[in-house]
Write a structure and sequence with these properties.
single chain; 56 residues; mainly alpha; 2 helices; 0% strand; Aspartyl-phosphate phosphatase YisI; Spo0E-like_phosphatase; EC 3.1.3.-
Length: 56
Amino acid sequence: MNSKIEEMRITLIETAQKYGMNSKETIQCSQELDILLNTRIKEEMIFGRYLENSRM
Protein backbone atom coordinates (compact mmCIF):
# COMPACT_ATOMS: atom_id res chain seq x y z
CA MET A 1 0.00 0.00 0.00
CA ASN A 2 2.81 2.42 0.82
CA SER A 3 4.32 2.11 -2.64
CA LYS A 4 0.96 2.82 -4.30
CA ILE A 5 0.53 5.89 -2.13
CA GLU A 6 4.03 7.11 -2.96
CA GLU A 7 3.51 6.50 -6.68
CA MET A 8 0.24 8.42 -6.64
CA ARG A 9 1.84 11.26 -4.66
CA ILE A 10 4.55 11.60 -7.31
CA THR A 11 1.96 11.41 -10.08
CA LEU A 12 -0.04 14.14 -8.37
CA ILE A 13 2.98 16.44 -8.15
CA GLU A 14 3.91 15.84 -11.78
CA THR A 15 0.33 16.34 -12.94
CA ALA A 16 0.01 19.60 -11.00
CA GLN A 17 3.25 20.87 -12.50
CA LYS A 18 2.13 19.96 -16.01
CA TYR A 19 -1.55 20.98 -15.93
CA GLY A 20 -1.84 23.34 -12.95
CA MET A 21 -3.25 22.96 -9.47
CA ASN A 22 -6.90 23.41 -10.45
CA SER A 23 -6.97 21.24 -13.56
CA LYS A 24 -9.37 18.33 -13.78
CA GLU A 25 -6.40 15.98 -14.18
CA THR A 26 -4.80 17.20 -10.95
CA ILE A 27 -8.07 17.06 -9.05
CA GLN A 28 -8.64 13.50 -10.26
CA CYS A 29 -5.16 12.45 -9.07
CA SER A 30 -5.75 14.18 -5.75
CA GLN A 31 -9.04 12.34 -5.26
CA GLU A 32 -7.41 9.01 -6.07
CA LEU A 33 -4.66 9.73 -3.55
CA ASP A 34 -7.31 10.64 -0.97
CA ILE A 35 -8.97 7.25 -1.49
CA LEU A 36 -5.67 5.43 -1.00
CA LEU A 37 -4.86 7.42 2.13
CA ASN A 38 -8.33 6.93 3.61
CA THR A 39 -8.11 3.20 2.94
CA ARG A 40 -4.72 3.09 4.65
CA ILE A 41 -6.05 4.95 7.70
CA LYS A 42 -9.05 2.61 7.97
CA GLU A 43 -6.79 -0.44 7.72
CA GLU A 44 -4.53 0.93 10.46
CA MET A 45 -7.52 1.63 12.69
CA ILE A 46 -8.95 -1.86 12.17
CA PHE A 47 -5.57 -3.52 12.68
CA GLY A 48 -4.95 -1.42 15.79
CA ARG A 49 -8.29 -2.48 17.25
CA TYR A 50 -7.53 -6.09 16.41
CA LEU A 51 -4.23 -5.88 18.29
CA GLU A 52 -5.90 -4.25 21.29
CA ASN A 53 -8.59 -6.94 21.41
CA SER A 54 -6.09 -9.76 21.02
CA ARG A 55 -4.20 -8.59 24.12
CA MET A 56 -7.26 -9.01 26.35
